[in-house]
Amino acid sequence: MNKKWFRIGMVSVFLLSLALRFWGLERFNTLVFDEVYFARFGNNYLTRTPFFNAHPPLSQYIIGIGIWIGSHIPFGHDTVNGLTGSLRSPWTYRWFNALTGSFVPVVVAVIAYQLSYRRTFAILAGLFTACDGIFLVESRYALSNIYIVIFGLLGHWFLLLALDNQNRRRSFWLVFAGIGFGASVGTKWNGLWFLSGAYLIWVAAWVIHLIHSFPNLKFFFTSSLLKEAGGEAAPVLAVPVDGGLPNPKGRRQEAGVSTYSPSSLSSQTPLQNLTQLNIFQMLFYLGIIPAFIYSIIWIPHLQLDKTYGFIAVHQQILKFHLHLGGNSPNVHPYCAAWYKWPLMTRPMAYYYQTAESITEPLPVMGPPLPVGAGQVIYDVHAMGNPFLWWFGVAAMLFLVGMLALQAVIPWVKEKRFSMPATLSVDTWIALYLVISYAANLLPWVEVTRCVFIYHYMCAVVFVFLAIAWFVDRCLCSYYQQLRALGVTITFIILAAFIFWMPIYLGLPLSPNDYKLRMWFNSWI
Question: What is the DSSP string of 489-509?
């Protein structure tokens, strides 16, 4: 894929994402799900109304700014309500989220490109993210989770850009990485897992570096297809990079896989350059700066509500979450523990109403019609694209297996651990995705309060990258069967997105069409 088509692809992914998020944004003239909190809180900042916030305030600031800007734009005011505490159009408190969410697929795509410089991988990552349901739903309403994700991903992207530069340019991007991570935590505390993922991959890079520094201790990452003569790691899927196009950044291509020559600094993978960051740089740029950003985010809120100081408000937030109750339907019908997220066994309805006909005014609030009376169902389901999630989990397990085999096979063959002098690009990508995914999922194992499927959003973006990587390797393979597999997976993901789109967008459905999309009772 050349630069022209890459740019066209990126623009197309953004426009698709933008159109889906803005289409019918005012469809429900009410507060949907947690808009009863976040839209009201955003409006409270405009009306100077003190209130207690159970999360850091950054997303509510942004929603409030969106309300203010939207109120001064001379369109989008066909319907209004007073549910936020002021007379507002739904468009005013939703449009900024829709715009922000439209950029998430683009950020995922540029991370994929920065990891590999493979354009096909980047386009696939962006396209798959644009075709996910829960990101679409969260972007169309005044909710906060989309901001945790985009700020955390920006932190990762800026870190990768910093690793690809030197001196002042590196410091410049590291500062922005710290700001991104701090903003993610300033939206919700679980944004901290994005930062922890960055630290863990840094630690992994140093471990690998130290292993290379001591020849007698080389172990762990030798490829299962290690070359007999040269000792370099061969790929699991022997495929060309970008269809055989020349590789940037001084990289060379051998045995059908992109590898990095250790002869010069510029030819190393950005992740391999992590060892150029020492502990003091990490603590300053990815420690002090995020903490500083997080702290100043609180200033406007604490000036508005003087009930609690900085320490006291954190104590109250922690107390609030500790008393929410466990993962039980008795606490909330849509409580879903962390192990239910990857296979999407318990999504949740953000909005559900019935009407007698499609010509009726859209229902707002209140009890639904009696059973059997409604002929039209309006449902907004916070549910991912099932096949994207399921294929993605399989791809993530494939990456885990790939890394494990590279450790086990040399031990079985040679009765000792060993490691090649240079790791392949795909090995670094696998490490990055597996570590980042684990960092954003595993902390939830110890959380006992009621949690929901949207808490998985920070982790599932790395699942999208994993399936995009797998499909990219298939499409670029020399084997026709693998290319056919890549095309088939892509087609199924796109078809599934179209099939479930009505429950992402809240389009009218007949009872039969609704049931056709609820494959399992636990989805309802």
Answer: HHHHHHHHHHHHHHHHHT-EE
Strands ordered across the beta sheet of 508-509: 348-355, 376-382, 508-509
User: Using CA atoms, how far apart are residues 6 and 119, in angstroms rounded to an integer?
Assistant: 6
Check whether 504 has a pLDDT greater than 70. Answer: yes
Residues 6+ apart with CB under 8 A from 307: 50, 52
Alpha helices, DSSP H only, in 119-191?
Answer: 119-130, 133-139, 145-163, 167-185
- Tell me which residue of 181, 98, 85 sits closest to 137, measured CA to CA: 98
- In this structure, what are the phi and psi dihedrals at residue 268, rounded to the nearest 5 degrees? -85, 155
CB burial class (10 A; 0-12, 13-18, 19+) of residue 46?
Answer: middle
With helix as H, strand as E and coil as C, how does 467-488 read? HHHHHHHHHCCCCHHHHHHHHH
Please enumerate in sequence order all residues whose Cβ is within 8 A of that of 93, keeping only pairs 6 or more positions apart, or say none. Answer: 35, 39, 42, 43, 63, 66, 67, 70, 84, 142
Q: What are the tens digits of pLDDT across the range 70-84?
A: 999 988 888 999 999
Cβ-proximal residues to 15 (8 Å cutoff; 6+ apart), any chain: none
Instruction: Identify the three-state secondary structure at position 311.
Output: helix
DSSP assignment of 354-416, as one string?
EES-TTSPPP-SSPPPPTTT-SEEEEEEE---HHHHHHHHHHHHHHHHHHHHHHHHHHHHHSS
Which residue type does 161 have? Answer: L
Work out the number of other CB atoms within 10 angstroms of the CB of residue 298: 18
Structure tokens belonging to residue 78: 């066909």
C-alpha to C-alpha distance for 212 and 217, rounded to whole angstroms:
8
Q: How far is residue 63's CA from residue 518's CA, in Å, rounded to a whole number?
A: 32
Reply yes or no on whether the pLDDT at 23 is more than 80: yes
DSSP at 288: I
Q: Take residue 442 and report the two structure tokens written for it.
A: 């595993």
- The rounded distance, in Å, linking the Cα atoms of 282 and 286 is 5
Query: DSSP code of 248?
Result: S
Which of helix, strand or coil describes residue 168?
A: helix
What is the pLDDT at residue 322?
A: 87
Contact 420, 231 (CB under 8 A): yes
Dist. CA 2–CA 248, nearest whole Å = 12
pLDDT of residue 436: 97
In sequence order, which residues have a C-beta less than 8 Å from that of residue 240 and are 6 or more positions away?
A: 253, 256, 476, 478
**Side chain identity at 185, as an amino acid letter?**
V
3-state secondary structure of 326: strand
Please, are residues 94 and 218 in contact by the beta-carbon 8 Å criterion?
no
